[in-house]
Amino acid sequence: MKGIRRLAQHLDISIGTVSRALNGKPDVNEATRERVLKAAAELGYVPNQAGRALRSGATGVIGFMMQTGSEITGQGDTFFMGVFDGVQTVFARHQLDLVALLCSSEEDPEAYVQRIVARGFADGLIISATRRKDPRIEYLAQRHIPFVALGRSLSDAGHPWLDLDFEAYATAAIDRLVARGHRRIAISAPHDDVNLGYVFVEQSRRALAARGLTLEDDMIFRSTPNEAGGYDIAKRLLQRPDQPTAIVLINESVSIGLYRGLSEAGVRPGRDIAVIGLNSPHATFLSPTLTCFGLSLRNVGIALAEALLATMPAYQADYPQGTVRRLWPFELIEGESDDYRLP
Amino acid sequence: MKGIRRLAQHLDISIGTVSRALNGKPDVNEATRERVLKAAAELGYVPNQAGRALRSGATGVIGFMMQTGSEITGQGDTFFMGVFDGVQTVFARHQLDLVALLCSSEEDPEAYVQRIVARGFADGLIISATRRKDPRIEYLAQRHIPFVALGRSLSDAGHPWLDLDFEAYATAAIDRLVARGHRRIAISAPHDDVNLGYVFVEQSRRALAARGLTLEDDMIFRSTPNEAGGYDIAKRLLQRPDQPTAIVLINESVSIGLYRGLSEAGVRPGRDIAVIGLNSPHATFLSPTLTCFGLSLRNVGIALAEALLATMPAYQADYPQGTVRRLWPFELIEGESDDYRLP
DNA sequence: GGATATGCCGTAAACGTTTACGACGCTATA
DNA sequence: TATAGCGTCGTAAACGTTTACGGCATATCC
What we know:
Two copies of one chain form a homodimer.
Chain A (H helix, E strand, L loop, with lengths): L2 H9 L3 H8 L7 H14 L5 H8 L4 E7 L10 H15 L4 E7 L5 H10 L5 E5 L6 H8 L4 E4 L10 E4 L1 H14 L5 E6 L4 H16 L9 E4 L3 H12 L7 E3 L5 H11 L9 E5 L12 E4 L2 H13 L15 E4 L2 E3 L10
Parallel strand pairs in A: 1-2, 1-3, 3-4, 4-5, 5-11, 6-7, 6-8, 8-9, 9-10
Antiparallel strand pairs in A: 10-12
The structure holds a DNA duplex (30 and 30 nucleotides).
């Protein structure tokens, strides 16, 4: 005898009452409820996931989907760890468990999400690294699976999303550089169709145009979003006859490799070239210090969790209604890397 | 009508036969098996996780347990991403899904693992960041839950484990430094009781003793295993009257902060102090280049997965028997950071 | 005091799948 | 021809939980 039966037998009451007591249903005496909770704790009873899920459809699990694999990663750094931290503080209040769904780079993300959904793996999903056109969104929305996207997309299904305000970042960074006299400003960009890349490139273009400048195509340095990509950018950038005098980076890790590539050529950020990037634990310790934009990943995680729960019937009572679509602002952290000024 | 019933109705055969066909059971005609597989693909049928798990006990999911939370992380970097990559290539062959079980820093790891097991969440577990004495191991072994540990522990339950060879690392690094004339050699260490910290400290002590040197307690710089910890080490190290002339680091990220802290004081690795660390994507791009020890995380992941599957009855036919207990060797990557020599 | 409401609890069906068991038709053997 | 064996398939019971439903007390009302 095991499971809820054992608990019921031990207490000499029916399994129905035990279940109701544990799940906080109304029609159960407070005295017996306490007896049940006490016994459950003593016997270490934990409801079986499969049984519960099969009957009620709820698993008590929220999945955070992320891609793995050598190329795409680089994003996979401490970024997600910070977000997880925030998400979990919210979920803990509802006895929800957060698990990371690791989609291999060899598997199609849409097929993966379909599999997860069909298997009834999680009650809700958080998807990240949204593509400009993202089939996952359409699929989830159509099936009415509760989900929230970290990142916008052209695929609009009236779904909730959160995103970092890369437009504001591009504008602020470029305005700052233009104000310091820069005219030939380069930017970095991912070479896949992840949405933030598009947003960043286009807004950079507009910000430059507003200052009477144009973003030439060869001033867009596409790279893998990791340290090696940054190193590669430095090499390509330095061998150009019309070197840019400043560069704005869209990824946290590329600054590391960029610094290295520049220093090998004796080029020093803040003295010979202006660099603006995004904040991260290791970017913080670059020398010379990186002028960067950052935000509280934990707060993003909290907002992400709340946005998701607001769409789930079982939890939405505790959260403000309405599908949230929210841009999260960056804050400037002044460093030395953009001290380089032109007349 | 949905699920397997729909598929059976569509094919006009019983659900039992459909199930047997899909699961590769012997007593089913090859022709009908093909019909079933074809129809399943067309209708996009995926067996419901809960139903399957409830009946057969198998979920098709392997959990990789890792801690989240601001303090402990720092390990959470690209390290795990590399391991995941290897694990998944093995699991893909068996239609097993890898998910990361994120244990919040506010929850007791043992309670967490008990909850996961009692819920019947996964068929097998990979646990990481093993403690010197780790209650998770005893619990899992006692319940006969298939698992493998990434990291050794004093808690020996005859269980399979893999670990990086930190003894060899300590010995090689210290021998190298001693050969270059160093006598006052410092090491870094975590301040919790994670097993690798203990191993590293003790082996460093032995390696020094073998050279007639002693590891003074105040030459052990305990810190958080991240960039900030490295920065802190630099500050503490520099204000000492009897500054060490060399330091060996046990973590991948601390080198970043250490470099920064040293450079602020005008101390340059390889010229004024010798530094040896562990390899990582960002350590690779430090300047001056870091002399470090590294290995293929992907291969570690592959070995980890194979070690786990070898203990699971459903899969062990494909893998060599015997519980694996294996140390993984580091390889030296020579850099400039330990060029500093003493007479 | 009878009818009605209320609080609490037990019963049993249902969720979707796997699998032990038995049934059926066919072939091979005696 | 009778029997045994084999290949294939359908039937139905289980897995552990939740929950609709009904039943039994006790309290409340006229």
